[in-house]
Amino acid sequence: MTGHDEEYEGASPKEQLIEACRRNNPELLKEVLEELGKKMSKEEIGDYLNRITDNWGFFLLHIATKNGSWAALDDLLDVEFLECDPLTRDEKRTPLHLCVQYANDRSPEIGLEMAKMCVDAGADPRVKDFQGRKAHLLINPKRCPELVEFLRLEEYKIEEMGGLGDSARERFRQNQEADEDTDSDGPSGEDEGGMKVR
């Protein structure tokens, strides 16, 4: 434990934060963050949170997304200096990868909303896991079609459009339609805009 945790005889801030993210308890999360704010600067709090992991090498954002703790996740992402793309110890997955896992296994709706929260906070959908897979490649497309479109669009906006919002969305859909037409004629490596066809 860090020096901040050694000051507590009961549950440490680290233990409470992990529990808040696991149990979707935003009240506990806010309470701990308020207490930390009395002793630490915003940058120090961000650095402290960025170093917290559980026994399996999951950071707080992973714990929240893995358990579908959307309310705690929303508040956690408001913390300044929080790293949005930490990697799990073994499989090197980001919180976005775990949003996809939750959508596949539990709830496509909650998985999608958590993914939107992460991306809005600065998560990068292009980050790959230890097998070289971006988050959208793990999605069950029949179960979670909206999540597939959302993550591919966000990646496209970053790489091709510089985040131009609605205009990027329209061009993305036009290219998707072009991809589908091309796929009917046989496999292709790239579309005209240079976007990889998966």
Polypeptide structure, described:
This protein is an all-alpha fold and 198 residues long. The protein has helices spanning 3-6, 13-23, 26-37, 42-50, 60-66, 70-76, 95-105, 108-120, 145-161, 166-185. Helix 5 (60-66) runs parallel beside helix 7. The longest helix has 20 residues, at 166-185. It is elongated. The protein starts with a helix and ends in a 13-residue tail after the last helix.
Shape: elongated
Rounded to the nearest angstrom, the radius of gyration is 19 Å
Total of helices:
10
Distance between the termini: 43 Å
Query: What is the tally of beta strands?
Result: 0
Order of helices and strands: HHHHHHHHHH
Query: How would you characterize the largest beta sheet?
Result: none
Structural class: mainly alpha
Strand content: under 5%
List segments where confidence is low: pLDDT < 50 over at least 5 consecutive residues: 186-198
Q: Tell me the helix content.
A: 55-70%
User: Mean of residue pLDDT?
Assistant: 86
Write the layout of secondary structure elements.
Blueprint: H1 3-6, H2 13-23, H3 26-37, H4 42-50, H5 60-66, H6 70-76, H7 95-105, H8 108-120, H9 145-161, H10 166-185
Helix pairs in contact: 2-3, 2-5, 3-6, 5-6, 5-7, 7-8, 8-9
